[in-house]
Fold this protein.
Amino acid sequence: MPATAIDIGSNQIKVLSGKAGSKPVIEKVAAVANPIKVSYPHDDSQAEKLVQTVDKIFHDHKLDKTEVRLSLPEEIVSTKIINLPPLTDAELASAIDWQAEQHIPIPLNQLTLEYQVLYRPDKKVKDQPMRVMLVGSRRETVQLYTDVFTSLGIQPTVMETQIFSAIRALGFESTDPTTLMIDLGANNTQLAIIHQAELQLAVNKIGGGNLLTKAVQQGITNITEQQAEDYKKTYGLNPNQLEGKIQQAILPALNSIGQEVVKTWRYYNNNHSQQPVVRIVLTGGTAQMPGIIEYFTQLTGSEVLVASPFLPASGNIPEKDHQTFMVCMGLLMREK
């Protein structure tokens, strides 16, 4: 089935188009600067700029509008995994609004809510809770976001939060070790812990690649934001480049992200001592920064890998920046 997957990030709008499925065939690739510099429009003016950009992308790359899959940025959703006593589907449906009020910081009259049972114990097993994932968002915000596409005659057939697309792209199997996925985006860092191919914990933290770029710009005099971005990408945490000045500028900002990673790591391991996190997988644009693997290895003492989102794919694979297409790959890999 041909499909077009779109991921609107703060810095870039990424697109993959081709044959969808567990082993996608990539036909068209696009990465275009985001004119509004945020992952979703906050007002009508930003929405109009985004409409014009998306329209141009579809026109320039001759993209099909029939099967369009859209990622929802984590900034506009709240994802919680909760434990409940074992309930039937009917019982859960009756109780879900009350649970949302307790766990999702959005009033019910403004809330769009979806939920999924991640685990329901066998009836023979006693004293074991079921796990349910809640995904809530503000109705008006999602409407403004989707209006960008409907105004162009595009009705997205799939709308999915970025974190689930990224997890799918990683292709976890039940035999894999418990893994902490760190998705280093432009403005946010998403953390997800996966055990036996099942999401156990999801956290979204403010701060990502743009925070590091600003740190470089502030630490090195008389350089532009673009020069700071180039320095970050080229030299990163390499202590032997530019007398280690780029590393010294980046480290304080990166440490603030690292502290959140360690907090999440320890919280999970303290509550799941029988299935602790033993591996980290990095993704997102900042995962390509020199020295980032060594940084998280030293921080956690754990094995650290960089994801390879195009491993199951064939066709027109982009030559570089594979990490930035992780969410698009996950959307394209989704089975209808």
Notes: The domain at 2-72+143-172+312-317+327-333 is CATH 3.30.420.40 (Nucleotidyltransferase; domain 5). The mean pLDDT is 93. The chain is about 35% helix and 30% strand.
